[in-house]
Write a structure and sequence with these properties.
The structure holds 3 protein chains of 3 kinds. Helices cover about 70% and strands about 0% of the residues of chain A. Chain A is mostly helical. Chain C is mainly alpha-helical. Chain C has a two-stranded antiparallel ribbon with strand order 1-2. The longest helix of chain C is centred in the N-terminal third of the chain and has 36 residues, at about 45-80. The radius of gyration of chain C is 23 Å and the shape is globular. Classes of the chains: A mainly alpha, B alpha+beta, C mainly alpha. Chains B and C meet through helix 1, strand 7 and strand 9 of B and helix 2, helix 6, helix 9, helix 10 and helix 11 of C.
Amino acid sequence: MEQLSEEEQQKILESPPKGTLAVILVYAAIFIVTWLFMYFGRFLAHGPVN
Amino acid sequence: MIHIDPLEKTWVYIVGLLIVVMLGSILYTAFANSVHPPSNVETIDSASLHLSKEFAEDNLGVKTRADGSVTVTMVAARYGFYPQHIEVPANTPIRFRIASLDVVHGLHIPETNLATMVIPGFVSEVNTTIPKPGEYPLFCNEYCGLGHHYMWSRVTVTPNTTTN
Amino acid sequence: MNNDAKPVGLALTHMWVAFAVFLLAAVLGLYQVLERAELIPALTWDEGYYLSVTAHGVIMAFVFTTFFIVGFGYYTAATSLERPVWNPSLAWAGFWTMMLGVLLAVYALFTGQATVLYTFYPPMTAHWTFYVGAALLIVGSIAWIAIMIAMTWQWKKDNPGQPLPLPMFGTTINAILWLWTLTGVAVEVVFQLIPLSLGWVDTVDVGLARSLFAWTLHPIVYFWLIPAYLAFYMFVPKAAGGRLFSDEMARVAFIMLLIFGLPIGFHHLYMDPFQAAGWKLLHGFGTFMVAIPTLITGFTVIASLEIAGRLRGGKGLFGWLKALPWNNPMVLAAVLALLLLTAGGFGGMINASYAMNAMVHNTAWVPGHFHLIFGGTTVIMYFAIAYYLWPSLTGKTLYSERMARTQLWLWFIGILVLTVPWHVVGLMGQPRRIASIPYDTPLVQAWDPYEYGMVLGGVIMTIAAVLFVWNLFMTHRRGTETGEREVEYAQAVHPVLKLPGPLNGFALWNWILAVYMIVDFGAPLLQFFFIETFDATSWGW
């Protein structure tokens, strides 16, 4: 591991967390698709209810 | 105000969108298709259930109405659901009414939306249809005593020959 | 801060009670999963099973958690504010009150006089010592609440205009949340269950009791979760070699957990017949809102990890993940906890989805869900907090960092092996809270392989539980003396020098919460005093 200069360190601290957004957007996509499947594909397929 | 990173702000908007989609689906089906959890608030005296007109023993079971829909009247009591075997047609509106003779019970027919709690002092009512014919168990799913795991009954769902 | 002023005795005593009962309850859990799988006929014992479920639930949900959170709170308050605990005598009085409560409840439980499960729904009625024990446990914890609020108030008075350090901001939010939360069950226990169990009244309003319990039942999970989130924010970025991505967003998350975590208990009553659909829908709306602070926390914590990974040389969109110091128990625990949170959080949203609750209510999906989110995410972070603080608490190095890593991985794998099958059989319709599977219907044969899988999960978790306690115990006996007692808190990327009042205080949020609680609980609770209800008599089991 090479040592980072002060400047490089500051750059990392200030830069937007693109990796985080990428990971969390994948999660959000899986989340909403699975929820819609559970709600419309499983739950409502079992019949109307109130 | 406060400093919020633009990407984190983007994420908050996306979260908002997810919630709008989910709540939107729920609200739409609630108001357009009347999809609700069973919420008919109706009191009854569980201690004298057997003396009531509706839950007297000879009134329990399945009745077919003029329009083809059915009403099911049952009682939950340790450790069974009575009558212990009922028969209903598939794809037919069922009005399911049940009361407890003793403690809190829960009931659920797997693979269907026939599910409710049964609380002493209240009548539970569920309106639903069961899409697929077959032999189903009706399980008690709330701890009601040491025999809870023995508490279940049977439901036969017959093919509906009149409508599709 | 002077080492003598650190509340080591208070913290260690509370935490050792927590971990000792945790180990006992873990063994009970193993017994339960074995008994239900019916692999060893000699273990079959209905009374024993339901007694175990009650004890396991009461200990894990009420005793283990409260003692850990209170002890952790005292240590965090003192070390983050750099002042001694206010009124230590009150703190010890609180401890002994809680202990007395636990002893009473344990007496009732293990003599078979309180086999009513950790939810103790009336009209099933336990021996009065069980309810008095519960009341004392709750009352004892109020000492902690008072001390947290007092210390915050004093610090703010001594440091006007200064931002309250984030660790204490979150801890005080949790103390306030707990005070609001415990009120529901306290009213139920004191005004309904104790009189009923003593025979002072003959009947109980079951709908009112369940509604009061539901008041507590949801926000209590945030009482448990907030310490885990505190570790995410104040320890993890430092342990990973980075900085906290946003101090302000952390405060926003804690505030949202307080406001939206409380007035939403009716999502536990979706299937109940004594509350109308409108109230259930209102609580459901709030339940979706409370997902937001968790999703914000996920972003902030992962972004903090990204900074740490990039500072360690990670490049590209995902290189920072690999570059993280995975051999650091706090970092490892955080990643494992976040992974479990993705699944556990999703399951929670399914439960929250109003009418869809019918598909999962009281099925095996429910204990699968809360073992995943609580036994998984939350408890893994409790382990991590213990490993992180033990050197400061004992003045010694942790007995074995390698054992800590192994233990965390074992627990993570065990939780998945236990809870994934549990969710699946729940979707197949298996009821919860069953001592065995005697149903004579072909449907249930499909459940068997999942039951056996769960036994394996239970075994792995029990081993992990033993390793955890062993490591802490051996640190006392054989750890190397260092005299190092500092607790290392993370620094923010943008240190807050000044904050708007609402992010640095609690009055506004308490007012908003009061209004929200009146709206969400006022009429639904008052209705029981106006409609004619037929109260139920006591029943045994």
